[in-house]
């Protein structure tokens, strides 16, 4: 274990306590971007709108100026103010919501900002003047976010500036998910129990996978899912036989798969492994034929990575820090060690294993699916972009969903830069 791993384990252990949650949240101030040392070189000067009797039409003019004569008059005021103090006019904007106009003035080198503001505010045409301030976008406000390996490795802030998996349906075929967990509030679109003879129960494995996929962002608690706005089908096909053993069978899994297929879930997550199963294999083939993406966890102890990971067309996911088993070609590596995850009862715990790495990849595919749907849903299903060693270049993968020809591994440090070059979509809040 490296010192970085040891530090992260210790930090995570502390963060899982209530007192430590507050301490982790408090670290945001220490890591906030420093304010630029240089003083702002532009001023915003708010000009009072001309009185009604001075306007040609007696109105302010809606979204734009509407009145060219009035606009020219305000431009002359701005030019006069600039000339009086040795400034330069950058631009002039109408602000109908405030009933004012804003002129942007550039200061000459060496000008004192405070004195310049005071001088401008002495003019009767000026409501107020202020410096052109700079703001920095902040990372997610969830306390355990910084401890999530994917946050840095996959540039989640950049991914979420582009897409968050909004309206993408992800089927979690697993043990019972705690859909009342505060980090999963409103994440579960529907739930169903396919385990005969056992009532619905919130269980550890399924709840952890669900949180890694779609834990809600910026709610001030816990973690952030890879696709924090995805919609989940919580399909209980497995049950916890003990604290360390979660079991499923062919029938329960087949019924859950049928549910996911019929409802056209864009991504189907199977964080499980077992013997090759004809029924399940046929159902997986149907899902793949419908362009649904199926993700499964690699079993490092099984030949070929186990089933369904080794089934043709399935996206097999292994621990990025473990050696891939022989006989499985094309497996993907994702973070799988010491992952903060949601736990039944409204808590969080640390998990390790390819089951949870598979959940992260399902979340990434949901983010890619949203970006693809905003460009051309008829385009081919977006594919992950591989790094050396089987890792995933999340930024290039997202870019591939929008501009396939532009996606090159390691092309840029963040998704915003990549998509800006390619002219891709932006704005995670877009419908």
Q: Quick summary of this structure?
A:
The chain is of the alpha/beta class. It has helices spanning 3-15, 18-31, 68-85, 113-121, 149-153, 156-162, 204-214, 250-262, 278-289, 354-373, 394-402, 415-422, and strands spanning 42-48, 88-95, 100-106, 126-131, 169-174, 188-193, 231-236, 238-242, 245-248, 267-270, 293-297, 315-319, 332-334, 339-343, 347-351. The protein is elongated and about 85 Å long.
How would you explain this protein's 3D organization?
By secondary structure, the chain is an alpha/beta fold. It has two domains: 42-131, Alpha-Beta Plaits (2-Layer Sandwich); 145-422, Rossmann fold (3-Layer(aba) Sandwich), CATH 3.40.50.200. 32% of the residues lie in helices and 19% in strands. It has twelve helices and 15 strands. The protein has a seven-stranded parallel sheet, with helices on both faces. Helix 9 (278-289) links the parallel strand 10 (267-270) and strand 11. Helix 7 (204-214) packs parallel to helix 10 (354-373), helix 8 packs parallel to helix 9 and helix 10 (354-373) packs parallel to helix 11. The longest helix has 20 residues, at 354-373.
